[in-house]
Design goal:
It comes from Chryseobacterium taichungense. This is Thioredoxin. The mean pLDDT is 96. The chain starts with a helix and ends with a helix. The protein has a single domain, classed as Glutaredoxin (3-Layer(aba) Sandwich), CATH 3.40.30.10. It has a 4-stranded mixed sheet. 53% of the residues lie in helices and 11% in strands. It is an alpha+beta fold and 187 residues long.
């Protein structure tokens, strides 16, 4: 895990790379994902402006005496990531170091943390100070997962557009609180 940590980037660099890919696509995927980069960057910006760490959650973090690191596998274009990654970065700021590993640059890390066989992101890897994996979380909070299961169970009654809309409304209202809480429970 230390090698992946050493290859990871700061949140600021993550945003910078997202903007670069939007403005100067490096490959066909960047071209095809243009609207997702735009949405992702807008959502990240909104989350950064609106998210305020919950005092009770900060007290819970302090009580756990967690002194490890948080490594997040992510990409700016991902809707789930744009809602959770900025909140997690702000929550752990000044307490635990958070770094981001770009999934699409090297798939070897995400392939160790598949979700039902998929490369779903974000994936949060909780590390101790010796870079041992304590736990992992992702790609979305339980409420978001439940929405996904509702869509998969009956895509005719609950179509993809409605699922995506409901998920983004949930993320906008919840502002990362559920993701933070679920990760706190894994520390």
């Amino acid at each position: 895990m230390k090698n992946y940590w050493d290859q990871s980037i700061s949140f600021e660099e993550y945003i910078k790379i997202g903007k670069q890919r939007l403005e100067n696509p490096a490959n066909q995927q960047d071209v095809e994902y243009k609207k997702y980069y735009e949405l992702g960057l807008q959502r990240i910006d909104r989350t950064l402006k609106k998210y305020i760490p919950d005092e009770d959650q900060l007290k819970e973090l302090d009580a756990k005496n967690f002194d490890g690191k948080i490594l997040i596998i992510s990409e700016v274009w991902c809707g789930d990531a744009s809602a959770t990654v900025p909140a997690l970065v702000k929550f752990f700021e000044g307490r635990n170091e958070v770094r981001i590993f770009l999934r699409d640059r090297d798939k070897s890390l995400i392939n160790q943390f598949l979700t039902n066989g998929t490369e779903s992101i974000p994936k949060v890897i909780i590390l101790d100070n010796d870079f041992n994996v304590k736990n992992s979380w992702g790609p979305r909070p339980k409420f978001g997962h439940d929405l996904l299961m509702k869509y998969k169970a009956d895509p005719v009654a609950y179509p993809k557009d409605l699922f995506y809309n409901d998920l983004q409304i949930y993320y906008a209202k919840n502002r990362g609180k559920d993701a933070v809480q679920e990760i706190l429970e894994l520390l």
